[in-house]
Design brief:
Blueprint lengths: L1 H4 L15 H8 L6 E3 L2 E7 L3 H18 L4 E5 L3 E6 L9 H15 L3
Antiparallel strand pairs: 1-2, 2-4, 3-4
Helix pairs in contact: 3-4
């Protein structure tokens, strides 16, 4: 994960195509708790309360804007957030998705 955190997402035009299955399987091992679902990666997060969930959502939004790579963010229940990411322009996964996932995990590990 450390190697991914040090990287920055690149423009989608920098990729000729999305990752193949073997490459996805290699990268998914680098991010804890994320699952591959329909050419996307996703993870559920749970918080003590609604305010903590919203703080997390806002931090993820700021991160995504800075990286130029934007996940789908779903707030559900009153304290749960599901993040789904894939490279929209290629309708598949690229290293950007795993960089973002690693950085999102880093946000979650911070104290609220």
């Amino acid at each position: 994960m450390t190697e991914l955190i040090k990287k920055k997402c690149i423009s989608c035009e920098g990729y000729g195509s999305s990752m193949g299955e073997d490459e996805v399987l290699k990268y998914i091992k680098k991010v804890s708790g994320w699952s591959v679902v329909d050419n996307r990666i996703e993870k559920n997060f749970k918080f003590k309360n609604f305010v903590n969930a919203m703080e997390f959502v806002n931090k993820v939004a700021s991160l995504a804007e800075g990286e130029g790579h934007h996940p789908d963010i779903h707030l559900w229940g009153w304290n749960k957030v599901k993040i789904t990411t894939f490279t929209h322009a290629l309708n598949g996964l690229t290293e950007n998705d795993f960089i973002l996932a690693a950085k999102i995990d880093l946000i979650k590990s911070e104290k609220p």
